[in-house]
Amino acid sequence: MFLAVCRNGSTLAASRKLGLSQPTVTRRISALEHALGLKLFDRDTHGFRPTDAARRLLPHAERLEDSAGAFGAAAAQARRANAQAIRITAPRRNFSPIFTAIIAEFIAEHPGTRFEFIASYEVLDLVAGAADIAIRIAPQIDDARLICARLTHVASTLFASRGYALRHGLPASAAEFAGHSFVVFDRERDRCR
């Protein structure tokens, strides 16, 4: 506040620079003068002119400003250095161009964010910290310790050749699946069997 008024010559100009109201800047300058027991500005129709006391304090205030800026920059650098990667686990096929675009957009909005991707069908223990986010195909997840959200609805369909249908018939419901043969995706080997 003190530096802004010194540099801009008035509480009005300082308030615009700081994004505060002029009365707020004026009150804070008055509070600073009261706390220091010094008159820092001569007020007249042309604005606020620094007194001799203010001019003597100015270099010290500028050093404080530099130190505060350096402190903030060092803290930001420390935050970036200590930031843990967000670990996302999902089946390999989920790491698609659409997924990549979503992650790229997130990083653009939150620079410095790092991700680690774990391509696996294995159900990792999120509560134990094996990953932070899991994308899974499941009818429902019943674990009160997790925050779950449905990303999409996945539908599946059964297909059969005419020859199979003629030899074995077609099941009309899940109850009639017994005795039928199916080609299914083998999660362990990432292929059909």
Summarize the structure.
Helix content is 42%, strand content 12%.
How would you describe the overall organization of this protein?
With 193 residues, the protein is an alpha/beta fold. 42% of the residues lie in helices and 12% in strands. The strands form three sheets. It has a three-stranded parallel β-sheet, with no helix packed on it. A two-stranded antiparallel ribbon has the order 1-2.
Large-scale geometry: rod-shaped
State Rg.
Answer: 33 Å
Uncertain regions: pLDDT < 50 for 5+ in a row?
Answer: none
Query: Strand tally, please?
Result: 7
Main beta sheet strand tally, sense and closure: 3 strands, parallel
* N-end to C-end Cα span: 72 Å
Strand order of the largest sheet: 4-3-5
State the secondary-structure class: alpha/beta
Q: What value does the average pLDDT take?
A: 88
Fraction of residues in β-strands: 5-15%
Helical residue percent? 40-55%
- H/E topology pattern: HHHEEHEHEEHEE
Number of helices: 6
How would the blueprint of this fold be written?
Layout: H1 2-8, H2 11-18, H3 22-36, E1 41-44, E2 47-50, H4 52-82, E3 86-90, H5 97-109, E4 115-119, E5 133-134, H6 162-168, E6 185-186, E7 191-192
Helix pairs in contact: 1-2, 2-3
